């Protein structure tokens, strides 16, 4: 996104995925509001009245056709190299969500974070995000446990101010220790998210689940990537492993996979906790409300 230091009087904010909070656009909005400009969400009918239109997209599968001309655009949906001007990037918006760290130590082939954000590093703390009033803060850190001292700082700030934390992007279970698990138990929190993306990680996941249970965290919700580099059988093995350990699961379907019926079925089974824990995969396929999935029984029932 370009650096335009001239004050503009009317700025439009165009979020191509409005159901998701866009941290970059919120910084742009706040920057221009502080400069005294009029800032509003983009309206196509008002196009000619805007001095600047700032547009952002998170996902590359979002439709980017028919965008207005002469817009300032950025975000991973467009490319991985565009950055905000420093005077906007360095704003601390205090919107009760955002990042205290950037980057990740992992190099998962399906993830753009290492390429976009680079090495993991501190960019703030809870006080740089919190408005001083809210009892809830959402953290978008991609791998905060890679910096355990920063994690401890954030948790202690949450304890001091009685703030409930939501580690929205998940906790790296491979970095858990008994001490960190105890700290996770102590803070007020939204149900923890972890990710079991590889069947080879099941033994490590078992150790993490046991460690969390020993600390008093009996259930977490696990993202399960499917349709990327795993077979349906491997997907079911991972899901059954989580179910047998009393964990929650959330199936994340990788774009471009082909077996639509199977992936739709396992998402419907796993992503609703009462169904996931209330019936096996076999029972789900045989349920009267799921007759459209019954033909999967022959091919996939052996792993129920």
Q: Which terms would index this structure?
A:
single chain, 304 residues, alpha/beta, TIM Barrel, four-stranded parallel β-sheet, three-stranded parallel β-sheet, 11 helices, 33% helix
Could you describe the 3D structure shown?
This protein has helices at residues 23-34, 86-89, 113-117, 148-161, 178-186, 202-215, 232-244, 260-270, 273-278, 281-286, 296-300; strands spanning 10-15, 38-41, 52-56, 72-74, 97-98, 101-102, 121-122, 136-139, 164-167, 193-195, 221-226, 248-253. The chain is built from eleven helices and twelve strands. The chain is 33% helix and 15% strand. The strands form four sheets. A four-stranded parallel sheet has the order 2-1-3-4, with helices on one face. Strands 5-8-9 form a three-stranded parallel sheet, with no helix packed on it. With 304 residues, the protein is an alpha/beta fold.
């Amino acid at each position: 996104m370009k650096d335009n230091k001239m004050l503009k009087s009317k700025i439009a904010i165009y979020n191509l995925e409005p159901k998701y909070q866009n941290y970059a656009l919120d910084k742009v909005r706040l920057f221009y509001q502080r400069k005294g400009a009029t800032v509003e969400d983009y309206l196509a009918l008002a196009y000619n009245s805007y001095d600047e239109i700032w547009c952002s997209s998170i996902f590359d599968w979002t439709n980017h056709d028919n965008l207005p001309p002469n817009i300032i655009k950025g975000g991973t949906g467009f490319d991985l190299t565009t950055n905000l001007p420093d005077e906007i990037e360095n704003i601390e918006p205090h919107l009760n969500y955002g990042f205290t760290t950037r980057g990740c130590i992992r190099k998962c082939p399906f993830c753009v974070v290492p390429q976009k954000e680079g090495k993991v590093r501190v960019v703030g703390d809870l006080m740089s995000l919190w408005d001083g009033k809210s009892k809830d803060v959402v953290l978008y850190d991609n791998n905060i446990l890679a910096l355990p001292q920063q994690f401890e700082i954030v948790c202690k700030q949450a304890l001091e101010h009685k703030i409930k934390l939501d580690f929205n992007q998940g906790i790296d279970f491979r970095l858990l220790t008994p001490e960190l698990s105890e700290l996770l138990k102590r803070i007020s929190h939204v149900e923890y998210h972890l990710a079991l993306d590889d069947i080879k990680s099941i033994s490590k996941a078992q150790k993490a689940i046991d460690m969390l249970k020993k600390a008093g965290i009996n259930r977490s919700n696990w993202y399960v990537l499917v349709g990327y580099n795993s077979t349906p059988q491997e997907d079911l093995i991972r899901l059954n492993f989580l179910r047998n350990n009393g964990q929650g699961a959330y199936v994340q379907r990788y774009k471009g996979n082909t077996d639509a019926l199977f992936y739709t079925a396992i998402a419907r089974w796993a992503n609703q906790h009462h169904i996931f824990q209330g019936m096996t995969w076999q029972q789900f396929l045989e349920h009267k409300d799921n007759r459209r999935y019954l033909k999967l029984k022959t091919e996939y029932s052996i792993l129920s």
